[in-house]
Amino acid sequence: MSPLEWMAWTTPTAIFFAAVAAMLVTMTLISLRWPSLPRKGVLPMPTTRGERLYIGLLGIAFIFLIWMGLTDATLAGAAGISLLWLISVLRWG
């Protein structure tokens, strides 16, 4: 048994984790080049760029869980809502 065989690594799962890793690397490089200062947006506390990314990713997880719990529809709707959520939190958060 290979070390990763215990987990069902499907193509969508691999793409998801690769995208999250790419976001983290990109945000790290951006923060090294242009340090982020906390700013107040629509969120109830001042946040940095990295904190808004973290809040956005947590929100995405909850959106998908709620979607899967309440509907049998395809996950494309949850993906669209999640993308809008992440963009909104990063831009106005």
Question: Could you explain how this protein is built, in words?
Answer:
This protein is mostly helical. It has one domain. Helices cover 67% and strands 0% of the residues. The protein has helices at 11-33, 49-70, 76-92. The longest helix is centred in the first third of the chain and has 23 residues, at 11-33. The N and C termini lie far apart (44 Å). The model has no long low-confidence stretch (mean pLDDT 89).
The SS-based structural class is: mainly alpha
Shape: flat
In total, how many beta strands?
A: 0
SSE topology string: HHH
Low-confidence residue ranges: none
Arithmetic mean pLDDT: 89
CA gyration radius, whole angstroms: 16 Å
Summarize the SSE layout with pairings.
Blueprint: H1 11-33, H2 49-70, H3 76-92
Helix pairs in contact: 2-3
Concise overview:
By secondary structure, the protein is an all-alpha fold. The protein is built from three helices and no strands.
Descriptors for this entry?
mainly alpha; single chain; 93 residues; 3 helices
